[in-house]
Design brief:
Shape: globular
Order of helices and strands: EHEHEEHHH
Oligomer: single chain
Number of domains: 1
Radius of gyration: 14 Å
Helix content: 40-55%
Largest sheet: 4 strands, mixed
Number of strands: 4
Distance between the termini: 16 Å
Number of helices: 5
Length: 139
């Protein structure tokens, strides 16, 4: 597998919470480090296959960074750490026992559509962010 230069966040393309998370990252990613693709896209399926991931997709987000796949709360905390600056502080939650973090994450993920809503289709990114979405520019 070729290691990508930038971390790639795979997210549920129809989930309001996931889109809010992606927008948060885009606003706070001062160095333009992250790239994105909806989990439902061909790009996401190819990236996961290339990385050797063949399990059912988890609810929520997947981060591929330097050839490593991060799932669920591990992915979220790795994103905060990579954002740097003050965002490294909440990333310290990685020291909370994993079974607790995963239980909270999975509770939110299971209920995300009911609590936050769902799009009928994956919305298009804002023009200034379009190049950061792999499924939009065929990267």
């Amino acid at each position: 597998m070729a290691v990508r230069e930038h971390p790639v966040l795979l997210f549920d393309g129809v989930c309001h919470l996931c889109h809010s998370t992606v927008h948060f990252i885009l606003r706070n990613d001062q160095n333009g480090v992250f790239q994105f693709a909806p989990l439902q896209s061909d790009v996401a399926r190819q990236l996961l296959s290339d990385a050797g991931y063949h399990l059912p997709l988890p609810d929520g987000v997947i981060l591929i960074d330097q050839g490593t796949i991060y799932l669920e709360s591990d992915a979220s905390l790795r994103v905060l750490y990579l954002l740097g600056g003050w965002w490294k502080l909440p990333a310290l939650l990685r020291f909370v026992p994993r079974f607790i973090r995963q239980a909270v994450y999975r509770l939110i993920a299971r209920n995300r559509y009911a609590w936050f809503g769902k799009y009928d289709a994956c919305p298009m990114p804002q023009p200034g962010w379009k190049s950061r979405f792999l499924d939009q520019n065929n990267s």
